[in-house]
Structures are given as structure tokens and as C-alpha cells.
């Protein structure tokens, strides 16, 4: 089992939801974790909460995954502070759900630019650092990355793309000792798409579950790589359980 103490991670979109859950789990292992948000205030607020939870150190960064220079600056700030990057989690994402008849051009571009191009920008900005550390790149895709549904054209396209991109990237860079895993969750209890988590979400995947999964992946012997992981609620409504 790999010791994670003092290893360093950057998580895009880490101020809430899945990214926050991953950050909390990593800090509990003694890792140093930087999180990004589109606003400094959101990142600062999340770091204040994270600092109460774990033994690791947290850093709040304002960055937009749609802007390569912004991603490069975030990577540089992590390196300036801690000198290394062991894990990069491309988590930032949005969802616009509408019929192709109603989906706007702006909604299409925002979805693709954030969910797909943002993943490319993230690994492109961090790749040399990950090669030096023989680190880990994890992209957060979705079961929507292999399963299409009505009103999901933009979201499906972005997540199908993330799944394919990440698996191809894995084949490109594993020769450097860099591991790449795509995590594909189903229903997760988060604020995604303006949802408000509540007790009614008890059947869903919880953010701490995905945090534990990232810890498990990090601690796995580097000789073994779960390159694509699908994650579902065990007993969703209507399952008859």
C-alpha cells in the first residue's frame, strides 16, 4: 500500500461536490491538496472547511479549465508552493440538458469547453510534472460517457469524449510511469445542475465514496492500473431491493 503523506494533488472544480469529496479524502491521508474554482471566494470557503477535516494542507486557487493559461498558472502555483505534483484530478464539469431543438450554441460550447477541452487543458498543463513524479491523472467522466439519453446531446458528447480521450491518453503516457484512470459515476448526491442534496439522496453515490475510491487508486501498487471504473448506486429507486 502506497503512503500518501505529503504527496501533492490538484483538483479542478474542487470547491464542492465530487471534487470536494475527493479533496477531503486525500487530506485525511495527509496529502497536500490544491483545489480550483472559477471564483477565489468559493475556493477560499472550501479550503476553510477542508482545513478542519484532514491532517493535510490545502491551497485555494482561482482558475477556469476553459482557459489553458489559467490551468498552467494553477499548476505553476502548486509547483511554486510544494515543488511537485503527484495527482491531477480533472473534475470540473457542468450540464446543460435540452432537446437538440432547444439547446443553444452557447450551451453547447460551454459544455464541451468545460467538460472535454478542460480535461485536455488540465493534463496538457500538468503532464511534465506528472512525468517527473510518475504521478496519476484521474478524469471524472460519467456513465453518460457510454450511455446516451434524450436531452443529453451536449452532455453525452462531452462525457463520451472524456472517456475516449482519457483512455487514449492512458496509452500515450503510461510508458512514462504516469497512470491514468477514468472514473464514471452514475447518480451522485451533489449540487450538480442546481440539485440540492437531501435525505432523499441516501440511495445515491455519496461524494465521500468517490473520495475513498481515489484514495484506493492512489494506494494501489503502481504495477496495476484500473484504467476505467464504472460506479453505480447499489440499490437505486425501483430496483426492487
UniProtKB/TrEMBL annotation:
Pfam families referenced in this protein's UniProt entry, alphabetically: adh_short
Cited InterPro entries: KR_dom, NAD(P)-bd_dom_sf, Sc_DH/Rdtase_CS, SDR, SDR_fam
Domain of life: Bacteria
Location of the Ketoreductase domain: 7-189
Signal sequence range: none
Family statement drawn from the similarity comment of this UniProt entry: Belongs to the short-chain dehydrogenases/reductases (SDR) family.
Full protein name: SDR family oxidoreductase
Amino acid at each position: 500500500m502506497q503512503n500518501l503523506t505529503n504527496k501533492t494533488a490538484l483538483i479542478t472544480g474542487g470547491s464542492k461536490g465530487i471534487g470536494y469529496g475527493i479533496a477531503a479524502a486525500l487530506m485525511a491521508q495527509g496529502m497536500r491538496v490544491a483545489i480550483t474554482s472559477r471564483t477565489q471566494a468559493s475556493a477560499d470557503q472550501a479550503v476553510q472547511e477542508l482545513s478542519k477535516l484532514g491532517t493535510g494542507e490545502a491551497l485555494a486557487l482561482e482558475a477556469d479549465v476553459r482557459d489553458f493559461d489559467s490551468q498552467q498558472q494553477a499548476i505553476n502555483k502548486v509547483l511554486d508552493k510544494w515543488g511537485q505534483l503527484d495527482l491531477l484530478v480533472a473534475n470540473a464539469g457542468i450540464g446543460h440538458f435540452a432537446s437538440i431543438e432547444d439547446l443553444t450554441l452557447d450551451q453547447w460550447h460551454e459544455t464541451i469547453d468545460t467538460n472535454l477541452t478542460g480535461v485536455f487543458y488540465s493534463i496538457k498543463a500538468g503532464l511534465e510534472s506528472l512525468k517527473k513524479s510518475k504521478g496519476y491523472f484521474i478524469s471524472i467522466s460519467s456513465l453518460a460517457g457510454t450511455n446516451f439519453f434524450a436531452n443529453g446531446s451536449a452532455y453525452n458528447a462531452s462525457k463520451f469524449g472524456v472517456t475516449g480521450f482519457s483512455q487514449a491518453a492512458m496509452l500515450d503516457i503510461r510508458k512514462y510511469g504516469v497512470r491514468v484512470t477514468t472514473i464514471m459515476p452514475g447518480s451522485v448526491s451533489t449540487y450538480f445542475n442546481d440539485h440540492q442534496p437531501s435525505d432523499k439522496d441516501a440511495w445515491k453515490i455519496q461524494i465521500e465514496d468517490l473520495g475513498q475510491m481515489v484514495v484506493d487508486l492512489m494506494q494501489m501498487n503502481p504495477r496495476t492500473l484500473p484504467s476505467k471504473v464504472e460506479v453505480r448506486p447499489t440499490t437505486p429507486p425501483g430496483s426492487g431491493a
